[in-house]
Design brief:
434 Repressor (Amino-terminal Domain), 3 domains, two-stranded antiparallel ribbon, disordered N terminus, about 300 residues
């Protein structure tokens, strides 16, 4: 069964020319032979390879790809499979995410602000325990245990609850435009947020040295949970992905979500190109989903509309 023609967006003619030449060399065909096999005019093949033909259609590239025995995705996106593209794109997005990593100094200041709130709550709880110990001396050691347990509950409850409910932001992180994200740059899952905060008391001792020694500035909780803290002013809820190709993993969905969140901050040509390649991957990996692409929109808008819509 032949693959459907790939998504048709304007691409750099020089890049298209290089891919046509590579495909023809792979198939060991002359221009005349490729023209006959694809049903195109030899002059069209020549202009494509020279990079001077504008407005190349997806249908032309599809016919050349089939004639040369290469995946149509290669002609448009430069990759031989969706997996190749996702791996390459994930690396590109990873670099964007790491460029916005929250500096250890900002994280320390955010933690200071948060612990002011936690400290007030712990102080009040401690005062209650002291008062109880004064009134009931025989319960003193029980009240010490209750204070320690209460300290953990207050600290863990504050950070874990706010990060879950506020999409990775405590009040301190919100004040300094910091947010917890997944390792791929998407929204951190609730279990990950719970895990990263379970060892916060330990990180009060070892967290700063671990962040200083790690290129990604991860404390122990981040390493266990697979999370990062980044500096961003864009709310995660603006780019909630509701559907992806059936075969895509959670990590790939996070990559897609992070790209959409970051697209407005990227150079226009770069975001449009990457969005077009993602649309090619979607058509390749899930043709049924690809049929719902709104081709009247630009690549970024079409991608956003596709993956954030309620579905068929």
């Amino acid at each position: 069964m032949q693959e459907r023609p790939t998504f048709d967006y304007a691409l750099d003619p020089a890049e298209i020319g290089a891919r046509v030449r590579s495909a023809r060399a792979y198939a060991n065909l002359t221009r005349q032979q490729l023209a006959e096999a694809s049903g195109l005019q030899p002059g069209v093949i020549k202009r494509l390879e020279s990079g001077i033909r504008l407005g190349t259609s997806g249908e032309e590239l599809h016919r050349i790809a089939i004639a040369c025995g290469v995946p149509p995705m290669f002609m448009v996106a430069g990759y031989t499979s969706g997996e190749d593209f996702v791996e390459n794109a994930r690396e590109a997005i990873r670099l964007l995410v790491e460029a916005d990593l929250g500096a250890p100094g900002l994280r320390a200041l955010a933690a200071f602000l948060d612990y002011l709130v936690v400290g007030i709550a712990v102080f009040l709880w401690g005062a209650m325990c002291v008062a109880g110990g004064t009134l009931r001396p025989q319960l003193r050691w029980w009240l010490v245990a209750a204070f320690l347990l209460g300290f953990f509950v207050i600290e863990y409850g504050y950070f874990a609850t706010l990060e879950v409910l506020r999409e990775g932001r405590t009040f301190g992180k919100w004040a300094l435009s910091l947010r917890v994200v997944s390792r791929q740059g998407g929204r951190a899952a609730t279990p990950a947020l719970l895990i990263r905060n379970a060892v916060r008391s330990v990180d009060l001792i070892v967290g700063v040295p671990l962040m200083a020694a790690d290129p990604l500035s991860r404390r122990l909780g981040d390493r266990l949970a697979g999370t990062l803290v980044v500096h961003t002013e864009t709310p995660a809820k603006e780019t909630m992905v509701t559907q992806t190709p059936r075969a895509w993993t959670v990590a790939e969905a996070a990559l897609l979500e992070n790209f959409l969140r970051r697209a407005a901050d990227m150079e226009g040509w770069r975001s449009e190109r990457l969005a077009g390649q993602l649309l090619v991957c979607i058509e390749h990996d899930d043709p049924e989903m690809g049929q719902r692409i709104d081709r009247a929109l630009g690549p970024v808008d079409a991608l956003r509309a596709l993956v954030t819509s309620p579905g068929p």
